[in-house]
């Protein structure tokens, strides 16, 4: 059951405790303290309910300010990859500047060597289906990657 956790004119945050999936639907342009508060609420929601899947619906989100992008790279991304999240589905923005900013964050996540699988989708239904697939595959892959990293570190 989808529960609304937080809502303002720029973002709606929700979660489904049984499915361990949450998400954010973004609207317009959110900057500065309001942007950072919304992003930190996403992290809090993920941690509080130990969510394994997240749907970032960025289709109506406009650009991310350079200072907010920098903050996201330094604060948000490291915390995201350390969270319980295993899958992040993204519905890309119709605004090019936003797509570029999100791509930068995804690249940083992918370069972290953590377990987070990230995919872009055109349709919300397809993204939700992927998020609801069994989690065991990611857990096994993460365990294998961690063992390989540890082995390489010892070599």
Describe this structure in words.
It comes from Pontibacter ummariensis. This is SpoIIAA-like. The protein is α/β, with parallel strands linked by helices. It has a single domain, classed as 2-Layer Sandwich (Transcription Regulator spoIIAA), CATH 3.30.750.24. It contains five helices and six strands, in the order βββαβαβαβαα. A six-stranded mixed β-sheet has the order 1-2-3-4-5-6, sandwiched between helices. Helix 1 packs parallel to helix 2 and helix 2 packs parallel to helix 3. The longest helix is centred in the C-terminal third of the chain and has 19 residues. The radius of gyration is 15 Å and the shape is globular. The N and C termini lie far apart (48 Å).
Short description:
This is SpoIIAA-like. The protein is of the alpha/beta class.
Shape verdict: globular
- Whole-number radius of gyration? 15 Å
Strand order of the largest sheet: 1-2-3-4-5-6
- The low-pLDDT segments are 141-153
Q: What structural class should be given to the helix and strand makeup?
A: alpha/beta
Total of DSSP H or I helical runs spanning 4+ residues: 5
Distance between the termini: 48 Å
Q: What's the CATH H-level homologous superfamily?
A: STAS domain
Q: What proportion strand? A: 15-25%
Mean pLDDT: 85
SSE layout:
Blueprint: E1 3-7, E2 11-16, E3 21-28, H1 32-48, E4 53-61, H2 66-81, E5 87-91, H3 96-110, E6 117-120, H4 124-131, H5 136-154
Parallel strand pairs: 3-4, 4-5, 5-6
Antiparallel strand pairs: 1-2, 2-3
Helix pairs in contact: 1-2, 2-3
Biased composition (Polar residues): 143-155
Protein name: SpoIIAA-like
Region (Disordered): 129-155
């Amino acid at each position: 059951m989808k529960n609304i956790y937080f809502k303002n004119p720029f973002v709606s945050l929700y979660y489904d405790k049984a499915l361990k999936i949450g998400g954010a639907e973004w609207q317009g342009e959110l900057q500065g303290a309001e942007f950072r508060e919304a992003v930190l609420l996403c992290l809090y929601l993920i941690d509080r309910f130990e969510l394994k899947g997240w749907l970032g619906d960025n289709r109506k989100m406009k650009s991310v300010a350079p200072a907010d992008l920098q903050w996201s790279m330094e604060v948000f991304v490291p915390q995201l990859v350390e969270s319980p999240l295993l899958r992040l589905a993204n519905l890309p923005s119709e605004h090019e500047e936003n797509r570029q900013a999100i791509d930068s964050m995804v690249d940083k996540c992918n370069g972290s060597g953590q377990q987070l699988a990230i995919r872009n989708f055109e349709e919300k239904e397809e993204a939700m289906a992927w998020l609801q697939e069994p989690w065991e595959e990611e857990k096994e892959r993460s365990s294998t990657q961690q063992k390989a990293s540890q082995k390489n570190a010892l070599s």
